[in-house]
Each structure stands twice: as C-alpha cells, then as structure tokens.
Amino acid sequence: MAACRRRGRYAASDPVYTYIFWLLIVPVVSIAWRNPPLTLEQVRYSSAPVNRAIPVTKQKYVPTSGSYPKGFLVSGVHVGVKPSNKYLPDLAILSSEKPCSAAAVFTRNKFQAAPVIVSREILQKRSGEGIRAIIINSGCANAVTGKGGLDDATRMVTAVDEQFPPTSDVSSSTLVMSTGVIGQRLPIQKIISGIPKAFENLHESHQSWLNTAMAICTTDTFPKLLSMTFTLPSSPGIIYSLAGMTKGAGMIHPNMATLLGILCTDAPIPASTLQALLTYAVDRSFNAISVDGDMSTNDTVVLLANGVAGGQPITSHTSEDGIAMQKTLTSFAQQLSQLVVRDGEGATKFVRIRVINSPSFDDARLIASTIARSPLVKTALYGKDANWGRIICAIGYTQGLAHKDTVIPGRASVSFIPQDGTEPLKLLVNGEPESLDETRAAQILEEEDLEILVDLGKGEQREHEASYWTCDFSHEYVTINGDYRT
C-alpha cells in the first residue's frame, strides 16, 4: 500500500479509500443522475432573481423617466431587514414638503397587520389631513405579531415624525406600511437606525423614485412605478402630476384594497373628496385584480395630495373638476394595478375578464372575480387549452349575485378576444356551443395578452359591465410559494 502511495496511486482494496468512495463519490453521482442539468426551457425566468436583476421580458415595464408631483421627495435605502439581504434597498420614505390630505383603503382580512391598524388610527385622528410622510419596509410584514408588532409600527412612525421640525401639533403625521413574511417580528433597531440615512437621501429625481419603488419589492421581478401629467377644467393652464408605485406578485386577491400602493399628486384635493375619489378608483383597479385568490393581511393603498401646484381645490367628486379627476385617477390606478398581474408569481399570461350586459356592476364584478380566481381556468390558460367549459362552470357557481336572473344559461355567450385586433373566437353563443377551431384557439392562447368576454345577454336594465385582470397558474407559482420563507 505504501508503494502504491509513493507512486501517487491508491489501491482499490485500501479500506480507507473504499470507505471514502462509498461515503462521498457514490452519493454525488447518484444525485447528479437523479437531477440532470436544467435545460433552457427549465430555467426560472418568472421569479425574482436573488440579485433582483430585472428579467429581459419585464424591462419594458420599467420607466426610464417620469413626471413627478411637486413637493414630494422620496428615497429607498438598505438596512438589512432580512439577514440574507446584503445590499438591496428595503426601507422606503415618501415625504411631502407641505402637509398633505390623505385617503386610504385597507385590507378586510380579519388578521390585520400592525401597520394597517396604526395607519388607520392616525388617519382617523387627523381626519385625513396634515400627513407628512409614509415609511415602508420590505422583508417582514409585521403581521400577527401581537402587541410587540404594534409597538414596532408605532416606533417607526415616531422616528419619522422626529425628522421634521417640531410643531404645536403633537399627533403623528406619518403612515406606516410593511410587506414580507407573516408572523415574524421586525428587526426594529435596524429600521430605526436607518431612518436618518433615508432622510439624508430624500430627492425628487427619477432615480430616487425608482429606488423607492425597488425598496418595497419582495418577490416582485421589477419595480412598479408610473407617473403622468394632467389638467383640470377650472385651471387649464396648470400642469398637475400624478405618480404611483405598488408592489405585489403573490397573495393577491383584494377586498377594499390590495397589496401596497402609494399614489400622490400635487393637485389641491381635501381629504373628504380624496377618499371618495380613491374608493371609486380602487373598486375598478386594485380591487379588480387577482393572482392567486389570497387576500393579504397588509393590503393598503394610500393617496396623498399636497396642493403644491396650486389652482382651485376640488371640493366635490361630483363637480366638473371632481369628475375629471376621477376619470384620470381611475385610469391611472388601473394601469398601475395591472403591473401587479403582469408580475404575478410564475405568470405567463395577462388576462382581462370582461363581463357585459349584467343587471348590476356588482354582479358583473362577482362573476369576473370568480372566473379570475378559478384554478381550473388559470391552469388551462397556462396549458394553452381552450377549455371554455371551465369558464362556464365558474360563471354558474358564482356566489352572492343580487339578481336571480343575472345568469340565464340560454342567453350566455363566451368569446376569446385576441389583442392583435383580429376576429374574436366565439366559444359559446346564446347557450349553444360553437364548433371550436383548435388551431385558431392555439394561436390566440400562444400570446401573452388575452381577453375573455362573457356576455350575459342583452335585455332591459342589463347595461352594466365590469372587468377583472388576472394571470395563469404555472409550475413556477408552486415552486416560488413552496419555498417562500427560505
């Protein structure tokens, strides 16, 4: 044996090396045999990369410039909420140079997170006026964390308040949001220590807005940020701005709000009008999207208005200015919320479900919502299978319809509407199935965007419609959520 070693070779009969062979080599070979290298098709493209590099297919949704409202400053910095995060921003601050009017909608999940409870109380105490800032952390939801969680949320609020010059108003003027894993306490000292740094980095630049949008991301594959300019009838010479950021890719199926969303404008709108505008817009945007049917504990959408651009205040949502603002805000909120669906965990499809000729908006929305969260519909979309029977099934079991004749099987029609302008593919017409062109169906389902049109049948007082936006269910969704905490 010694001679063999001196020659640089080992005898196969050597017990030590036989043991090493069976202990180390065989298991490695076995694992490699059972887990061959990933093919190009198997590589994960739809989940957030560890370094948060934006996938090529999603880069088109990230703005390279923006028109942001006057008087708002933002920042996104790294504090390391999750120990595994070594450098990515995870603490965001949005601040106004002038106190704002504020409105919000919150989750109706019974297990409401500490930030939801604290922010709601602050808005109620201030009647929606005099808000100066919002602080948001990602990486930990601070949900189902008991009294300690409430204390942590309050400490975040207080620490931000202390960054502003003292005033005679002692009540808090900061709202707080958190997103991430449920049931874990915040590393509160890291966050408190990072707040001065976040204030030092406050800026109005596009890059600052983008950094802030990135700081609130969790499993998102890209930061969701939009901005626009608009005018109002009473002040045609004033250019107003509206900006918004949101986060979310999973646990998305709202009721009164969804995920996290922050919108702000420099238009002059008091809190009472602002709440009416936001509630209407959210019902047709953030409340009309679904990724997986799960309602989060932390869902919050906030709208701030600081009035820095000047002009006539919008004192009523039914005034000429109010109607114009409602249209602008609703359209903007729809565009912003739809980015969440486009970034749905593991999603490969972006689907609009439109229900028309309903006796009421609420019934149309209930039907669209039921289809949107059907696992069978969503898996068929992923498999590019024109299994329209699953759509009809979902329509038929929709619960809570206010009108008994909303769904009349002999009057219902279903079509696929391609987004390239070509002819719709009729699947069901007045309760009668059409001969399915499988080739045409496959072509339509090959595309990323699709509309499913459900026509409940024309008739007296059946002029209402509603839309819901959703995505498909893929293998990737299961993979992402199977190891979310790790």
Q: What is the β-strand count?
A: 15
Helix content: 25-40%
Q: What is the number of helical segments per DSSP (H or I, 4+ residues)?
A: 13
Strand content: 15-25%
General shape: globular
Element pattern in H and E: HHEEHEHEHHEEEHEEHEHHHEEEHEEH
- Measured between the Cα atoms of the first and last residue, the distance is 47 Å
User: Structural class given helices, strands, pairing?
Assistant: alpha+beta
Largest sheet: number of strands, sense, barrel closure:
8 strands, mixed
Q: Over all CA atoms, what is the radius of gyration?
A: 26 Å
Mean pLDDT equals 86
Low-pLDDT sequence parts = 1-13, 16-47, 250-258, 292-296
Key features of this structure:
486 residues; disordered N terminus; alpha+beta; globular; 33% helix; eight-stranded mixed sheet
What does this structure look like?
α4 runs parallel beside α5 and α7 packs across α8. The N terminus is likely disordered. Strands 1, 2, 3, 4, 5, 6, 7 and 9 form an 8-stranded mixed sheet that branches. β12 and β13 form a beta hairpin. The protein starts with a helix and ends with a helix. The longest helix has 23 residues. The chain is α+β, with helices and mostly antiparallel strands and 486 residues long.
Summarize the structure.
The chain is α+β, with helices and mostly antiparallel strands and 486 residues long.
